[in-house]
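Quick one: structure for this chain?
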Amino acid sequence: MAAQLSQQASPERLTKRHIRDTIRSIVTHALLVPAAAIFLIPFLWMISTSLKPNSQLFTYPPVWIPHPFMWENYPKSVTYVPFFTYFKNTLIIALASMVGVVISSSLVAYSLARIPWPGRNILFLLTIATLMLPYQVTLIPVFLVFSRLGWVGDFRPLILPQFFGFALYIFLLRQFFMTIPKELSEAARIDGASEFRIYWSVILPLAKPALATVAVFQFIRSWTDYLGPLIYLNDQQLYTLQLGLYQYSSQYGREWGLLMAAAVLITLPVIIVFFLTQRTFVQGVTLSGIKG
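Got it. Here's what it folds into:
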């Protein structure tokens, strides 16, 4: 009799749970959609401004839909300054930095997560502690080092430091590596695999979401970096897009349509990269915090 009652009650409980989950989902989306719209407004305004004639830039009330559409602002924005030269420079720095960070941070994270050696936890804490140091604190000493090396004026100060790891990415990858069963590494050791072979052939293929997350983070970080190129680059032919955009605003400050068109073109690669890797990116961020 008790079993029959429980079987009869079970569908009712499932129905109530389904209703609760549905209501929770509706409430969540009802809160997130307006929040997303608020964050989307500046980007939509930038696109709208990039297509406006000068007569509609400062009208009140604001004009959201330009009339007519000034599509010629986009080809003009890439001809007033060497846009594609700046694009190439930025792409070189971003891709090289991304490769360097992924390789170096994954190696350090593997040693901290998978190889037992004395003092690794202390070193991990010291690595995380470096995140509390503002960039401005180490700015002058690092600049003096690169100046003594004769590297100021080219891409090396912006790329080579990334081949020595970054604390945040080391933390994310270490957390992910610790979720991978240790039995896989032990089985590989029994088969005679070295630590590097285990890292390369066993761990990295399983850590693609975390690696993709680090790659996207670093790409965006390098693509949007303004202070680094400002300090180390003094040749206009080596300028990045961020420096070019500042130069653009100083030369054509009154041409807001052209300025916004250039800003849209600079932002597009970041948006494309994010949407192409969105699923892997979210999965990597989620799984990196499962186990500490």
